[in-house]
Amino acid sequence: MLQTEDEEVMRVYGGFSRALLSVVDVGALASPRGSEARIAAGVAVYRNNVRAAYLRVLKDAFPVVARLVGDGFFRFMAHEYFHAHPPKSPLVARYGADLPEFLEQFEPAKSLPYLPDIAHLEIAWLEAYHAAEAAPLRPDELFDLVGDDPDRARLVLHPSARLLASPHPIHAIWRHNREENEKPLQLAPGGERVLIVRPYGEVKVEPINVATFLVIEALADGARLGAAIEAAIDQRPGASVSEFVQLIATSGVVTAASIVD
Predict the structure, then answer these.
(1) Domain limits at 48?
(2) Which residue, among 60, 55, 98, 97, has the nearest Cα to 78 in the 3D structure?
(3) Is 183 in the same domain as 228?
(4) Do 106 and 145 have their domain in common?
(5) d(CA 59, CA 230)
(6) Which comes out higher in pLDDT, residue 41 or 222?
(7) What values do phi and psi take at 46, rounded to 5?
(8) Are residues 87 and 168 in the same domain?
(9) Per-residue pLDDT reduced to its tens digit, 54-100
């Protein structure tokens, strides 16, 4: 069966797209009415430009990862990531969502076991940066709304709020390299739990204790304030409800509260 002109155009454009974002043989794009060599050379130019653009996107999105591994290793890693995870969305800014999972399996990076979680943290920072605006409640406003009914209080978290727990001191590593500090980094043993939120137009990345993490995590899962505090009380024996409310309020993570039956 003879191909129609539209089918031939779709075949060529489909092959062109695959060639830009994969390792297919550019010769497969050749049209019976075209020059294979000319097509292959043209595609190679476009392919190099497209890949270079995506590699710049990765470096802009993961500056701490790039600093930790160095420019040469990052280019090599980004090249391998590009082949393993070619872009699927036309939104270039979203490229790199699978990088943490890729790093977990990337053998050359095994000597840096914290690297995937640093990548997770950088993604959380970007998500918080691009999240919707919302005004956080002040501590006095939250206390007034919650009153004596924490068991019935349901809190709304800021759209930018993200939590990340790691067996590694990721906040200390991230901050040291984000600030491009040249001094040696002294790391405390153990992992860290991190809150990422943008309450007043600027993304905050802060380490938080286990109790605060558990409360915010429970609230994010839809628990009422009383139940969320119960989930964390073992981590702070003797702590009062007001102490937990103060911790939550000062974090800038709550934007609304209501009392429900």
Answers:
(1) 5-112
(2) 55
(3) yes
(4) no
(5) 42
(6) 222
(7) -60, -40
(8) no
(9) 788 899 999 999 999 999 999 999 989 988 888 877 677 778 999 99
| Residue 67 falls inside a structural domain | yes
Pairing of strands 192-197, 153-157: unpaired
Whole-number Å distance between alpha carbons of 155 and 219: 7
The answer to whether residue 121 is domain-embedded is: no
Alpha carbons within 13 angstroms on the beta-carbon side of residue 253 total 26
Angle between helices 36-61 and 5-21 (to 10 degrees): 50
DSSP at 131: S
Amino acid in the structure at residue 154: R
Residue closest to 160 by CA, chosen among 122, 125, 209? 125
CA atoms lying within 13 Å on the CB side of residue 46 = 14
SS3 191: coil
If we measure between CA atoms, which residue out of 157, 162, 163, 164 comes closest to residue 134?
Answer: 157
Helices (H) and strands (E) in the chain, counts: 11, 5
The DSSP bridge partners found for residue 162 are: 196
The token pair at 13 is 């454009």
